[in-house]
Amino acid sequence: MIAARQPIAHAEPARDTPLSRLLAMRRPLVMGVLNITPDSFSDGGKFLDRDQAMAQAWRMIEGGADIIDIGAESSRPYGGQRPVDQDDEQRRLEPVLARIAAIGVPVSIDTVKAKVADWALRQGATIANDVWGLQRDPDMAGVVAAHGVPVIVMHNRDAADPAIDIMADIDAFFTRSLSIADAAGVARQNIVLDPGIGFGKTPEQSMTAIRELGRLKRFGLPILLGASRKRFINSVVPSEPDQRIGGSIASHLIGVENGAVIVRVHDVAETVQALRVAAAIGRAQ
Prior knowledge:
By secondary structure, this protein is of the alpha/beta class. It has a single domain, classed as Alpha-Beta Barrel (TIM Barrel), CATH 3.20.20.20. The chain contains 11 helices and 8 strands. α3 (86-93) packs parallel to α5, α5 (114-123) runs parallel beside α6 and α10 (245-257) crosses α11. An 8-stranded parallel beta sheet has the order 6-5-4-3-2-1-8-7. The radius of gyration is 17 Å and the shape is globular. The protein has helices spanning 18-23, 50-62, 86-93, 97-101, 114-123, 140-147, 166-184, 203-211, 231-236, 245-257, 268-284; strands at 29-35, 67-71, 107-110, 127-130, 151-154, 191-194, 224-225, 262-265. α2 links the parallel β1 (29-35) and β2 (67-71).
């Protein structure tokens, strides 16, 4: 069962940030996904309108979201999405990002572009979420360091290779990302690791990454798991993305058992309920 987690070991005292204050609560954190895109794999196009996006943000906050993760370019792991230039990405974000940040719940900006991250952090975002783990845009690490904010470093690959040892690949990727972060002056205690479920992985490799998540504890950093509605669930039980709530919750409960301290989800209220009930059962024992 989900028990109170142990404090994350840091080489130096953690800087006070909205994320560090949440992590100090020693319970799993729920990050709600807000896609302001027409082509996200699960909910593309639903929240392009400002009022719809704001309403969804409020629904997630009322459902118990600790963090709102906002993205305006699809990073769908299955390919086929069209690249979005910096101006278009900012244009999608501008009507909502500062307004949501003003609510008071920490906002993370999901982008691979350093210039978009810099702009968003100036608009009130307090966390950077890079699905290429500081390895795609050479300026991203510098932007994160300059703002002194936490960054989510996600493992990714251009294509899945079923022949590789996926945990060894994740390990090597994070080692390189941490070297880039160190060279840019990103504080180690501001880094969160995400194994990138579904990104450059076969369904079996995604499930292996969840099962073996505890191996990432060796880095001594918080772990985020984003398995929400991902395609590997369909490989077990054929289903459309919005029909994968059960599989998503099962994955996140197992992920928390294996060391995740943040889960990134579309279905906030349902996930919060599952985590709280699991924790209550654990306490009862």
